[in-house]
């Protein structure tokens, strides 16, 4: 988990994928938020040099509910399992602290976009279920809320 250096570490990751994080105001808000909420950063060692490869920032809304506030993998590391490992790590940490439900928001399918179709596939293939698509949260962009129950993880971890 990151401490105060999270904003410095997540910014290059976000900027490597402008097709997902191309709205400057939103990108700056995600960078700032990473410094005040639990943020897990994955890194890869290349030729003895560690490179930040991806991150997930978690918002804990209530005792039993949390949200993937922001998650990104540096373009250089897409398809290497970084996102899956980050999500799995966050889920186990959350389940161990009593979280039963995890949500994530992404662009809704009523506004087709190839990048966000990949995002939706990623989350659904990792056990998230579409809950609701709504308008008004993000100007001009439909928001899809996906949820995942972490109850089975709690049972498996013995918590």
How would you describe this structure to a colleague?
With 159 residues, this protein is α+β, with helices and mostly antiparallel strands. The protein has a single domain, classed as Aminopeptidase (3-Layer(aba) Sandwich), CATH 3.40.630.30. Helix content is 34%, strand content 36%. A 6-stranded mixed β-sheet has the order 1-2-3-4-6-5, with helices on both faces. A hairpin with a 2-residue loop joins strand 5 and strand 6. The longest helix is centred in the middle third of the chain and has 15 residues. The two termini are 21 Å apart. The mean pLDDT is 90.
CATH architecture term: 3-Layer(aba) Sandwich
What integer is the average pLDDT? 90
Q: What general form does the structure show?
A: globular
The helix fraction, in percent, is 25-40%
Report the count of strand segments. 6
Q: Can you identify the CATH superfamily?
A: Gcn5-related N-acetyltransferase (GNAT)
Strand content: 35-45%
SSE topology sketch:
Elements: H1 6-15, H2 24-34, E1 39-46, E2 49-62, E3 65-73, H3 82-96, E4 101-107, H4 114-124, E5 129-138, E6 141-149, H5 151-157
Helix pairs in contact: 1-2, 3-5
Name its key features.
6-stranded mixed sheet, 6 strands, 159 residues, alpha+beta, globular, Aminopeptidase
Short description:
With 159 residues, the protein is α+β, with helices and mostly antiparallel strands. It has helices at residues 6-15, 24-34, 82-96, 114-124, 151-157, and strands at residues 39-46, 49-62, 65-73, 101-107, 129-138, 141-149.
């Amino acid at each position: 988990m990151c401490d105060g250096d999270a904003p410095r570490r997540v910014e290059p990751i976000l900027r490597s994928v402008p097709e997902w994080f191309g709205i400057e105001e939103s990108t700056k808000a995600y960078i700032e938020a990473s410094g005040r909420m639990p943020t897990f950063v994955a890194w890869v060692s290349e030729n003895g040099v560690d490179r930040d490869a991806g991150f997930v920032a978690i918002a804990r809304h209530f005792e039993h509910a949390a949200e993937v506030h922001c998650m990104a993998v540096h373009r250089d590391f897409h398809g290497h399992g970084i996102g899956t490992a980050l999500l799995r790590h966050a889920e186990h940490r959350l389940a161990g602290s009593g979280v039963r439900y995890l949500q994530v928001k992404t662009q809704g399918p009523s506004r087709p976009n190839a990048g966000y179709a990949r995002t939706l596939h990623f989350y659904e293939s990792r056990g998230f279920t579409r809950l609701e698509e709504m308008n008004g949260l993000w100007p001009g962009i439909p928001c899809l809320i996906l949820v995942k129950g972490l109850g089975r993880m709690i049972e498996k971890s013995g918590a």
